[in-house]
Amino acid sequence: MKIFQTKIIVFILFSTLFCANAIAQEDDYVESEEGEYVEVDEDGNISNKTDGLRLKKNYNLGDGLTLISKSTKINFAQSLQLLYVFNTADDFETTNSQFRVRRARFKMTGTLFDNLVYFRIRLNLVSNFQSATSGTRSFNNVLQDAYAEYRSPNGNHRLNFGLRADYIDSREVRFEGEVLGLIERSLISSAYDAIFDYGIRYQGEITIKNNHLIKPYLSITSGDGNASLQKNYGGFKYGARLDYFPFGKFAGGGEFYMEDIYREKRPKLIIGGVYSYNDGTTSAKGTNGGRYLYGDSNQKELLPDYGKFTLEYLFKYQGFYSMGSYVKAQAYIPDGIAGEFKLNGDWSPYTGTSEEIKNTVMSRLNTGSGFNVQAGYVLPSNWSFAARYTSLDPEKNAADFASQDKAYSVITTKYFNKNNLKIQAEIDYEENRLVQQPNGSKGIFYGQLMLTLQL
Q1: How far apart are CA 254 and CA 34, in angstroms?
Q2: Of the candidates 207, 374, 383, 368, the residue with the CA atom closest to the CA atom of residue 285
Q3: DSSP E strands: which ranges in 333-364?
Q4: pLDDT bucket at 436, cuts 50 / 70 / 90
Q5: Average pLDDT along the chain
Q6: Alpha helices of 1-124 — where are they, by DSSP H?
Q7: CA distance 166 to 159
Q8: How far is CA 100 from CA 18, 80, 88, 144, 255, in A?
Q9: What span, in angstroms and rounded, lies between the C-alpha atoms of 107 and 121?
Q10: Which of 66, 81, 153, 165 is spaced 20 to 30 Å from 106 by Cα?
Q11: What is the mean pLDDT of residues 253-280?
């Protein structure tokens, strides 16, 4: 038994060296259950016993390492995305290029007690995010998923607790980074999606007449994103999502990846509506809680609230897919804000009128609206082509999150083994919202090439 335990420990340590950046969630994404399992004895050798620990015999790319017993299954998986980026202003006078590891992550998932309990842990050791906070207002950007979930015996009700990508962001966040049809998510997601947060969530599934399906989601989270690992600032964030499937479920968990690689034999559609309300927000969109703390004249905490509404769809049929979303985000600034707490904790009173103070607070929040639509087609040869258009419309006095407010993208992808091994080449153009000089650049061109490998 000691030999076998040593092998498992070595595997985990080796895998962890190649861990991970991911910005999304897996949910019901179907992991391969195909293949034969073999028994392993205490010395790590294959045996002929009918119970005990088993390992998967026939490995398929993307399976990871699976350990399974009568009532428990644990899976270790790794992924790697290697990216080359080239960008230039539209005058082609200034160019930049970069090789980087976009994602390299490790995750451990499993089920206990005959699938009644599911758990997931994901680490992010390749991160390009830099926090503007310091001191006690910092957060752990290594841990991205750490939650446990109860699943009812029929699978129609789920309740999870912990850190994960939230249900109440746009449809794009429902897709793992490795299964995106384009290299990055749209400007909509970067502008308004908070993504990871700590809290408790419910997911349901209701089948109604003629195979129609409704999935309700409820969420109560910190509203601070990863920062709440240390402290919860302000109040909680409350949200709900309702997804309607008029033609039933997608093949192979297709609601959780972008392109129609399974080539749906019948049309499949999701129409979704989402609303969230952050009671006392302390960051631009709920990602980095504690970044901005305000108070009244008595230095008592007084914070703005942040609400967001999303309407979206996803359609797939015979290799074709289309998806779109509209997002509206707005802030509610209370009267009486008299100053702010600096990052070191010192109190800094404001001067100026009430309107000027409100404008200062608004200038730190991502408010406004946005629209994204995209479509693509996967050929029987496993080549795909897709295009996307995104537009942002920030509110007056909002944060400067929309320096580029319109984006156009085209991409081609070669799938060698579904989303487990693929190469993508993409060209993007983003328009500058404001041209600072009469002959200044009107936009930026991007060229991107990425290899995705899931083990």
Answers
A1: 18
A2: 368
A3: 339-341, 347-349
A4: low
A5: 85
A6: 2-16
A7: 13
A8: 14, 11, 18, 20, 29
A9: 6
A10: 153
A11: 95
CB atoms within 10 A of CB 245: 22
Contact 292, 331 (CB under 8 A): no
> What number of other Cβ atoms are within 10 A of residue 382's Cβ?
15
Q: How far apart are CA 229 and CA 231, in angstroms?
A: 6
Tokens read off for 144: 């991205």
> What percent of the chain is modeled with pLDDT above 70?
84
Domain positions in the chain are: 2-30+71-454
Residue 7 Rama label (left phi>0; alpha psi -120 to 50; beta): alpha
Q: Read off the amino acid at residue 349.
A: P
The residue whose two tokens read 């076998």 is 4
Query: What does the pLDDT look like over 389-425, one tens digit per residue?
Result: 999 999 989 998 888 999 999 999 999 999 999 999 9
* Token pair 């029987």 in the structure block, residue: 380
Is the CB of residue 326 less than 8 Å from the CB of residue 371? yes
Q: Tell me if residue 282 falls in helix, strand or coil.
A: coil
Residue 351 in contact with residue 337, Cβ under 8 Å?
A: no
How would residue 360 be classed by pLDDT, with cut points 50, 70 and 90?
very high
Angle at 137 between CA 17 and CA 290, to 5 degrees: 120
**Across residues 192-215, what is the average pLDDT?**
93
Name the percent of the chain lying above pLDDT 90.
64
Map residue 241 onto helix, strand or coil: strand
CATH match of 2-30+71-454 with 2.60.40.10: no
